[in-house]
Amino acid sequence: MSINWRCVFAVLDPRRNFRLRLGIAIGSVALILSILLSLLVGYTASKQLEASTGKFFTDLSYQMSDKLDRGMFERYRDIQIAATLETLYKSDSSQDAKHALLEKLQNTYNDYAWIGLASPDGKVLVSTGGILEGLDVSTRPWFINGKMQNAYVGDVHQALMLAQILPNHTGEPLRFVDVTAQVKEQNNFIGVLGAHLSWQWAKKVQDSVLRTVAQRDKVEMLVLSKNGDILLAPPSFKQQGSQLKSFQLAQTGKNSYTVETWSDGKQYLTGFSPSIGYLDYPGLNWVVLVRQRTDIAFAGAITLQRQVLIYGVVLGIVSALLSWLVANRIVKPILAISSAAEKIRAGHNQVNIPVIRGRDEIATLSVSLNRLVNTLENQQFSLQNLNEELEKDIIARQQAETEARILNQELEKRVQQRTIQLEAANQELEAFSYSVSHDLSAPLRRIESFSQILLKKCSNQLDATSNVYLNRISYSVKQMQQLIQDLLFLSQASRSEIHLQKINLSEMAYAISQDLFVTEPKRQVLFCIPEGVTAFADKRLIYSVLENLIGNAWKYTRNIEYARIEFGIVENKDGSASKSPIYFVRDNGAGFNMKYHDKLFSPFQRLHSEAEFEGTGIGLATVQRIINRHEGKIWAESTVGFGATFYFTV
User: Fold this and answer.
1) Inter-CA distances, 451 with 230, 455, 468, 478, 588, Å
2) Are 628 and 542 part of one and the same domain?
3) Histidine kinase domain: which residues (predicted)?
């Protein structure tokens, strides 16, 4: 019997099998929740272990540093007390008595490697075991510092003079801690009593502290000097301690713990405690570190996390199987309904949707589908009739669209023709305006010349009325010439080519302001022009824009005692310039009524009488045409009596 693998794959395809999809979904949710729970449990447990173990390591490091400080305090006190005994400083004390005293002191504490009394010149007078007696120790640090201080404690160092004399069963170089005190008789300096304390003493203290953690795996303790040098550490440890985060934190005086990476590339949980001395013993600023690898310190949390994950995976698999069984019970009646619906789709009109008994959603669905099929069969006939009517409507609509398309094409042709005619008319109008303005200039110049000649040569022969008439003729000619000049520039602004370049508007505005002061040098006007305002525009045309706008501001502030004219760029709220610069010219002059704003840029439109302010009414129209040719915008804001602000972009 052959296996139909296609059917098998179809059954196992989640896209075609609701039961399998539901089982996978619930199992996946359970698995994801298990993973999240395991991560949360692992994180929480790790933090709790870090806190508890870190505090424990901090306590260990503090115990070690405290024991070291107390031990050093006792030796510090022993030597100071011994230095005050009469046997040492009395001149009549025998050498044997001094020997006996030092030997007794050494026997009270076995970690005294050597104790000796040196004279002021550095010669050893008496010592334990007679070692170094008669030798010069004046260059040794313990003697030099002991001679300068009443009591002195030297940091750990290797033995030099005693290295070959004293027995050493450890196989490691002998290292000592120096403790000295001055010997005096009635404030007279007799010598220096010095003791070398074997550093093996610190190893014994370490063993006594770590004895309480015998059950903990691979807990290591280190003692570092104030410079980070290793004083006590596992034999394999070679790292410079000053680079450690824990060492740096301990130097601030803290007793705490941290997680850090050491020189072997592994992470350690490290507790630390600084040595701060005890009572009058000042301390040597040692730092005690207690460390353990994080994979060992947090092993319990990792194990718990794995257990939670395993239980979650098992729960997810069980949930998926149960979901598959429940889904199978739910899907069975749905499959029966689906089979009947498929037969109806294939054209079997005598098939009915099976009605499922019960009151649940599937039973309700089967009843609704059964009614739906009956309703659809009744509506099918109605739809056929409706489709026939729709076909007729579509044909009629297509005919109407065809007619509308033909009409639109005719309208587009007419618009194109009218546009061409309008452009031609505009060109003729501009040419006419240019020609008329140009042709009028010559007669006006002659009228002006003859008027001036009459005024100069015949003014004495004419009466006062005739002179007034001649002056009026001259003034009117100048007005007409200005109007013609403005019309010519307006025509040129519409016809001339534009050459775009980067222009310094600040320099241009400043030059215009200086020209205005030349025309009326007695006026008191404050110009506010910032440096570095630039634009990308035609230099000649944009000069005309600024000349008109600043000239208008100059004109309309004529009656203001403290006139102010400002040019610049509109800034954002944060003080920066916008990406598309908006330039402005602002004054505190006469202003205008915003009700007539729409007439502002129209040719020959004036918002003030000529008796108040002279002008032709062409300037702002020219400005707008130049701005339009730069594809920019221009607008204005004003209040009567409080000045006006013109804004433009290019």
Assistant:
1) 112, 6, 11, 12, 39
2) yes
3) 435-650
Give the number of other CB atoms < 10 A from CB of residue 548: 22
SS3 91: coil
**Structure-token pair, residue 289:** 């570190």
Question: Quick one: which of 521, 66, 495 has its CA closest to 279?
Answer: 66
For residues 474 and 426, membership in a common domain is answered with yes
pLDDT digits (tens, 9 = 90+) for 76-111: 898 888 888 888 888 778 888 888 888 888 888 888
Cβ(620)–Cβ(544) under 8 Å? Answer: no
Q: What length does the chain have?
A: 650
User: Considering the chain, what is the average pLDDT of its residues?
Assistant: 78
Mean predicted confidence (pLDDT) in 537-564:
88
What whole-number distance in Å separates Cα of residue 538 and Cα of residue 501?
A: 6
Query: DSSP for 363-374?
Result: HHHHHHHHHHHH
Q: What does the alpha-carbon distance between residue 427 and residue 601 come to, in Å, rounded to a whole number? A: 21
For 71, half-sphere exposure in the C-beta direction (CA atoms, 13 angstrom radius) is 22
Residues 490 and 533 in one domain: no
CB 534 within 8 A of CB 502: yes
267-274 vs 287-293, strand pairing mode: antiparallel
**CA-to-CA separations, 533 to 80, 149, 217, 573, 577, in angstroms, rounded:** 83, 75, 75, 18, 10
266 has pLDDT over 80: yes
**Domain final position from 439, 467, 495:** 495
> Do 599 and 623 belong to one domain?
yes
566 occurs within a structural domain:
yes
pLDDT confidence tier of residue 251, bands split at 50, 70 and 90: confident
Is residue 231 within a helix (H) or strand (E), and if so which, with residue range? strand 230-232
Strand 188-198 relative to strand 175-185, pairing: antiparallel
φ/ψ (deg, to 5) at 364? -60, -40
Domain end position, chosen among 495, 525, 549: 495
Q: In this structure, are 640 and 549 located in the same domain?
A: yes
What are 189-198's pLDDT values in tens digits?
Answer: 889 999 988 8
Q: Which domain holds residue 395?
A: 373-495
Q: What is the mean pLDDT of residues 338-356?
A: 68
Looking at the structure of the chain, the number of domains it has is 3
CA 390 to chain centre: 63
Residue, of 570 and 489, whose pLDDT is higher: 570
